[in-house]
Design brief:
The complex is a heterodimer of chains A (317) and B (268).
Chain A lengths: L3 E12 L5 E13 L4 E5 L6 H8 L7 E6 L2 E2 L4 H7 E5 L11 H11 L4 H14 L15 H13 L5 E5 L7 H16 L3 E6 L2 H7 L2 E6 L2 E6 L1 H5 L6 E5 L4 H9 L3 E6 L5 E5 L2 H13 L5 E4 L3 H9 L8
Helix pairs in contact in A: 3-4
Chain B lengths: L2 H26 L2 H26 L2 H20 L2 H4 L2 H5 L2 H5 L5 H8 L2 H17 L9 H28 L7 H15 L11 H8 L2 H14 L5 H32 L7
Helix pairs in contact in B: 1-7, 2-3, 2-8, 3-8, 3-9, 3-12, 8-9, 9-12, 9-13, 12-13
The chains are: A alpha/beta (317), B mainly alpha (268).
């Protein structure tokens, strides 16, 4: 049994004033996430990531196809699915700001059927684990974005779910808070929970995911490990160099085997080469020109994202 | 689920949800702003209507208008449930509530309980505090039954308001209009300003299904010693339970519709 099994899933929305025009948010999506896996779902805004999460969490019905969580159909056996899943959305919303952290978690624990001593123990344990115990009695309105996000995760875990759906969980977080959050996702994996995480952040997907599924315009483009997806882009190598004289730049552009020469926003020169022998020639030219600020790179997940989805994907945050 | 669990589980969620209602109330009012702002405004409204009776020079008319409008204050406040039910969508919790195992209706029953509680206090202050100023005096033996009937009015109106809130669940932008229109209609047809006998038969039939009509009849009976209060009070209890069941069913229906149309809130 897989943790998540999606087959031929479609979801249409009515748009326009009368809702008579249809737009397809998901189109024939197939996806399998195994038990204990951390799966990244990456794609630009409007790709269908949140729609997919909503269908899996039973708050939205699919137009056609099926979505199963731990063998239970999200449409026909929604009550069982709800007991097995936890959902965490990014951003400030979704918490009761006028209640304190402990009251928030107690409310949600009751919603998941906990009561009495087990409820209190579970809430205290989560507050401790997420580093919120010292602020448990403070109103959530007074929390920082990072603290709110940790409380969101605690809320998502309060029902002890086997499957966690994290929809853009680190959006708007500062880098330190985002790093801490990623390490918490690592803990979820170590506990054997299945995690489906949607993100725009390629570094995040590379850091925490076993497999990544790229999605765009409601269709799955590909699924593979982050490193394997990096191989999807043409097998170019890349040399990045700073303070390159103009004459050397022209020589590099004319060199056979050099695919492209572009200036990065930082001012450094990025040279794409067809293979490693050309890379050697490029490096020699640069060293002979007195350039000492040099590095070579292999394509990564971000390159694959840009290659498959294009600049449109990076225009959204 | 055992019988005990089927009672304690909703009760627990209603209790935690009511804590949220209390937090909202504390955020909106201090005891000073409630007393001199809200209560003062409501007493002014009751005074305004009772004064008509005084101007007409009829003690019965004054009593009729004062009692009706004093009880109406708890109705106005209880009907605020229509507005506050939409708050879940606005704070981004509706999606999460929809994905939780417990029914939405349990949350909403507790979520706006501040209104009937505050409304009861407002009505009692108007009846017992303002009444004597207009010649409406109360005997010691009347205070307890009138208090109980005001509590019943607030509670059963809250159940009716929950039903309207469920019907208006997806009409977020019209929540204030629906709330105001509903209580103004109740004010007109339930015997607050004019007796129900003033209206055509079909309006009277509709009014009988609204708990306020029954509780007001019972309060007037206790107040004027004109008839049995128990029968209309029992009708009010039955109607309140009926509207509560209808509200739970309507919330389920609207949630099902929301899942189909994608209107169960945006990602939080």
């Amino acid at each position: 049994m897989s943790a998540i099994e999606i087959r031929a899933l479609c979801r249409d929305y009515g748009v326009g004033r009368a809702g008579d025009k249809r737009t397809q948010a998901l189109s024939d999506v197939d996806l399998t996430v195994e038990l204990g896996e951390v799966r990244g779902l990456v794609g630009p805004n409007g790709a269908g990531k949140t729609t997919l999460c909503k269908i899996l969490s039973t708050v939205l019905e699919a137009t056609s196809g099926s979505a199963q969580v731990l063998g239970h159909d999200a449409a026909t056996d929604a009550a069982t699915v709800r007991r097995h899943i936890g959902i965490v959305f990014g951003g400030d919303r979704g918490l009761y700001g006028r209640l304190n952290a402990r009251q928030n978690l107690r409310f949600w624990a009751a919603m998941y059927g906990l009561h009495g001593a087990p409820l209190r123990l579970r809430v205290d344990e989560l507050l401790e684990r997420l580093g919120l115990a010292d602020r448990a009695g403070d109103r959530v309105d007074t929390f920082s974005r990072g603290m709110k996000q940790r409380l969101h995760l605690a809320r998502g875990l309060v029902g002890d779910p086997r499957v966690l759906l994290l929809d853009e969980p680190t959006v708007g977080m500062d880098p330190v808070a985002a790093r801490d959050f990623r390490s918490l996702v690592g803990e979820m994996r170590a506990e054997g929970r299945t995690v489906l995480i949607t993100t725009h952040d390629m570094a995040e997907a590379e850091a925490v995911c076993d497999l990544v599924t790229m999605i765009d315009r409601g269709r799955v483009l590909l699924t593979d490990t982050p490193s394997a997806i990096g191989e999807v882009v043409p097998r170019h190598e890349r040399v990045v160099a700073g303070a390159v004289p103009e004459q050397t730049r022209q020589a590099l552009t004319a060199l056979p085997g050099v695919v492209s020469v572009e200036q990065e926003p930082s001012g450094r020169l990025r040279v794409e080469t067809a293979d490693s022998s050309v890379t050697g020639t490029v490096l020699r030219l640069l060293v002979e020109a007195g350039v000492s600020d040099l590095s070579t790179q292999r394509p990564n997940l971000e390159d694959a994202y840009l290659h498959l989805i294009g600049d449109r994907g990076m225009a959204v945050g | 689920m055992s019988l005990t669990a089927s009672i304690t589980a909703p009760a627990r969620i209603i209790r935690y949800s009511a804590a949220n209602a209390l937090a909202d109330m504390r955020h909106m009012y201090t005891w000073k702003t409630w007393t001199f702002g809200w209560l003062g405004r409501m007493l002014a409204q009751v005074t305004f209507f009772a004064f008509f009776g005084h101007v007409i020079g009829s003690a019965d008319q004054t009593r009729y208008l004062l009692v009706g409008n004093a009880v109406m204050t708890c109705v106005i406040e209880s009907m605020m449930v229509i507005v506050s039910t939409t708050w879940e969508r606005r704070v981004g919790t509706l999606t999460l509530l929809s994905a939780a195992p417990a029914p939405l209706s349990w949350v909403f029953i507790g979520r706006s309980l501040q209104w009937p509680v505050s409304g009861t206090l407002t009505s009692l202050a108007a009846l017992f505090g303002l009444g004597p100023a207009f010649g409406v005096h109360w005997r010691a033996g009347q205070i307890l039954p009138v208090t109980a009937l005001v509590v019943l009015t607030a509670a059963t109106t809250y159940c009716f308001g929950l039903f309207v809130a469920a019907v208006a669940f997806n009409a977020d932008g019209a929540r204030n209009i629906i709330s105001n229109a509903t209580y103004l209609l109740m004010m007109a047809v339930c015997g607050v300003q004019v007796p129900t006998s003033y209206w055509p038969d079909w309006v009277r039939v509709v009014a009988q299904a609204i708990p306020l009509t029954q509780t007001l009849k019972a309060i007037r009976s206790v107040s004027g010693g004109t008839g049995p209060a128990l029968v209309p009070a029992c009708w009010a209890v039955l109607l309140g339970v009926g509207w509560l069941v209808a509200a739970s069913w309507m919330f389920q229906l609207m949630a099902r519709r929301g899942r189909r149309t994608g209107s169960m809130g945006t990602g939080a």
